[in-house]
Design a protein that fits this description.
Helices cover 42% and strands 22% of the residues. A hairpin with a 2-residue loop joins strand 2 and strand 3. The longest helix is centred in the last third of the chain and has 26 residues.
């Protein structure tokens, strides 16, 4: 039997922007929220929060989070290499 989770799982410490990350996850009813802040009022930092009902679900969501972050990093690398233009609007 898989142990039920009652609190959202956080990757690392709640971070400087933990309350905002939690509020955003709840408002969006999301499984995962990764909040990256550069040069914010409390400095730069990140918070990642996963909502899961058990350890199996948490593992799946953590893997999804890692994949999403790799996709973001790859896209930034392509933009820096000149393969894509920076968005303007």
């Amino acid at each position: 039997m898989t142990e039920q989770m009652t609190e959202p799982m956080r990757i690392g410490e709640p971070g400087k922007y933990g309350p905002e990350c939690q509020e955003l996850r709840e408002r969006l009813e999301a499984e995962v929220v990764a909040l990256l802040v550069g040069g914010g009022e409390r400095g730069s930092g990140f918070s990642i929060e996963i909502s899961a009902c058990d350890a199996t679900e948490a593992d799946r969501a953590a893997r999804m989070t890692a994949e999403l972050l790799r996709d973001v990093a790859d896209e930034i690398d392509r933009m820096l290499a000149g393969e894509h233009k920076w968005p303007t609007s």
